[in-house]
Every structure is written in structure tokens, then in C-alpha cells.
Design goal:
This protein is α/β, with parallel strands linked by helices. It is about 25% helix and about 25% strand. The protein is built from ten helices and 15 strands. Helix 9 packs across helix 10. About 30% of the residues are buried.
Length: about 350
């Protein structure tokens, strides 16, 4: 099977959007019926004028042809299709009677790895934030990066991964699509795929993660927590493995409750046990957010305090200036506190601790 959405959308049927698919500045394409095409570029959604399909019937025929090429069914009895390509692109289709008109959402995968210098220039965080994250990574802390879709979670994950070196030991990452890059010969990248169509994503992920537990892994990275893989992540963390993962959540403080809801669905543990496991096995939460001016910021870094249930120590945050409508949001990043774990930092040399936390 071809592995790019571009290969599936023929020039004949999808001519109105062919150049948009080839344009790397356009990350998302939205087709809403035959006469409305929108794109997302640099976080901003715009209508693309002069792009239309001959009719909704022809658009529906086009998506049906694409579904057949994917080996999927798309008709009145199965009116929704969600497909992820091996190259990372995703396409979601909804047709009547579920929707009023054919609705197509294409999310393109554009592999870009931003350096710390790039993110400093973009104002996503400052040098203190970078030093803080590098420090946590050297200590093999268990880090969760949370945020809304398209908020910069994977960008932040890659920034943290830049601080993983050979001295960190064996590193294994697991992703739906390869988006992580780590400069270590001890890093292995796994993508749970398989030829058995009867197996779900969760079953494939579970098999790979169970095998990782036998690979003598020092750091485990999961690109995105979406389902049952959360149980294996916490099992790994509970055995002393360091690591990190991303998850959708609306704030730093809603991250553990979001993880709790996933665990409730995918485990038989009691509510009390789940909260205790999360509090004991997650060390740091990094929250990223797209602000109203479309700028992306690390708005919070918090420590999950121990012992305790969902108790937090704010460590870092973005403090905005008064917001003026129509103008870019400005403000300052501030170090807000010192982590509790430094009180018992017997094996951490003073010179290793960032200067803003030295006594």
C-alpha cells in the first residue's frame, strides 16, 4: 500500500486541493462540501478562495474511490472513515446521513525538529525553562507533556529528548508515526504496525509495550497516550524506568485527572489506587498552550509532590502582560518554586543543579 495521502488523491478527483497537499506551510486541509475549502497555516485557519468541486455528488464519489483504495468501506451504512498513513498523514471523512454534506479533514505530517535556539526565538519558553527540563531529563524524571491538539506537545517532547545522551542508558520510543528524534546510539524507535487487520491499535501497542518491559529499558517514551497503553507506561514507571509521554489535557492541573479517566476505563483498580499510582509515578507535568495570538507557550511546569494525592508544586510559568486585542501577547517566564525532591538530593552535586535552585 502506498503510504502517503498524496498518493491516494488523484489529480482528476482532487485537483482543487492538489497544490495544497504539496505546500509544506499548510498543515491541515478542511473540505466542507463541494464549495468550501479551508487550510490551517501557522495555526490560523483561512478560507481558500476559488477552490471548489463540481458537485457534492462528485466529491462523495472521490472519497469513495479513495476509501476503496484503502480497503475501507464508506457508504450510508458505514458513513465515517478515519485513516492514518505510514508517513504520518491522517484523513477523516464523514458523509451523509451522519453529516449534511461530505466533510473531509486532512492533517498533514511535516517532520520538523526545532532546536532550543528556535524555540527561544519563537518565545515558547526561556533559557531557565530549557535548563529546568534538561535537569529533569538528566535525573530520569517521569515527565508528562500536556496540551490541546496542535499546541506544541510533540515539539516540546523533542526538545526534552535533545537532552538524552548515551549516559542515560537504553532508550525506547513508541509512536503511531515516527516524530521523535534522539541523538543516542542506544535509542530504538518502535512503531506498532501489523498485517493482522483484526488487531486494534490498542492491541498492537500493548504487544509492543509488553515486549519493552523485557528489553531492559532505562527510559521509555510514548509519543501520545490515547488508551490502554497508559497501563504499561505506569507499570514501567513503577519499576524505576524514567521516561515521558504526551497527552491531551486543558491544563497542567487537569492532566492527572485526564490520566485517571483513561486508567478507570482500562484497568480494574479502584479510584483510590489509581490516584495513588499516578501521584507516586508521575514526577513532572509540562503544559503547553496555543494563545489567542496563535503563539505557543510553555505556560506551566509543575512538580507532583510526594507523598500525597494530586498535590502540586508550581516550578515555572508564563505570566502575560495586560492583553491588548489585536496585538501579540507579551509577558515573562518566571521560576515559581523549587522542587521538593531537592530536599533529599543526596546524590546530586550542587554544580549539577540549575543556578536558580541552588541554596
Amino acid at each position: 500500500m502506498n503510504d502517503r495521502v498524496l498518493d491516494f488523491l488523484s489529480d482528476i478527483y482532487f485537483a482543487p486541493i492538489k497544490d495544497l497537499l504539496e505546500n509544506d506551510t499548510c498543515t491541515d486541509i478542511y473540505i466542507r462540501g463541494s464549495d468550501l475549502v479551508l487550510t490551517r497555516e501557522k495555526g490560523i485557519i483561512r478560507r481558500v478562495e476559488g477552490r471548489q468541486f463540481d458537485s457534492e455528488k462528485k466529491l462523495e464519489s472521490a472519497v469513495n474511490i479513495m476509501a476503496r483504495k484503502l480497503g475501507a468501506r464508506l457508504d450510508e451504512f458505514s458513513p465515517m472513515l478515519d485513516a492514518r498513513f505510514e508517513s504520518g498523514e491522517r484523513i477523516n471523512i464523514v458523509i451523509p446521513p451522519v453529516s449534511r454534506r461530505p466533510v473531509v479533514t486532512i492533517r498533514k505530517f511535516i517532520a520538523r525538529y526545532f532546536s532550543a535556539k528556535d524555540l527561544l526565538a519563537a518565545g515558547m519558553l526561556d533559557q531557565a525553562g530549557i535548563d529546568m527540563l534538561a535537569f529533569f531529563t538528566r535525573l530520569r524524571k517521569r515527565i508528562i507533556i500536556s496540551g490541546a491538539p496542535n499546541s506544541g506537545k510533540t515539539t516540546m517532547l523533542n526538545l526534552i529528548c535533545q537532552h538524552i545522551g548515551e549516559e542515560q542508558g537504553m532508550v525506547v520510543s513508541v509512536e503511531d508515526t515516527r516524530e521523535i528524534s534522539i541523538n543516542s546510539p542506544l535509542w530504538e524507535s518502535l512503531v506498532p504496525t501489523g498485517q493482522d487487520p483484526a488487531k486494534t491499535r490498542e492491541e498492537r501497542f500493548s504487544e509492543v509495550l509488553m515486549n519493552i518491559l523485557r528489553m531492559d529499558t532505562d527510559i521509555l517514551i510514548i509519543g501520545e497516550i490515547r488508551g490502554a497503553e497508559i497501563t504499561q507506561l505506569l507499570t514501567s514507571f513503577n519499576t524505576g524506568t524514567g521516561g515521558m509521554a504526551t497527552i491531551h489535557a486543558v491544563s497542567a492541573l487537569s492532566t492527572l485527572p485526564r490520566m485517571e479517566s483513561l486508567l478507570t476505563h482500562h484497568s480494574s483498580m479502584s479510584e483510590t489506587a489509581i490516584r495513588q499510582v499516578l501521584s507516586e509515578n508521575i514526577d513532572i507535568i509540562v503544559h503547553v498552550k496555543t494563545l489567542s495570538d496563535q503563539g505557543k507557550r510553555v505556560t506551566d511546569i509543575v512538580e507532583v509532590k510526594k507523598p500525597g494525592i494530586y498535590q502540586y508544586q508550581p516550578l515555572y510559568g508564563f505570566c502575560p502582560d495586560p492583553i491588548i486585542q489585536g496585538r501579540p501577547i507579551t509577558g515573562k517566564f518566571k521560576v515559581l518554586g523549587r522542587p521538593d525532591f531537592l530536599r533529599e538530593a543526596t546524590f546530586i552535586g550542587r554544580q549539577e543543579i540549575p543556578p536558580f535552585w541552588r541554596d
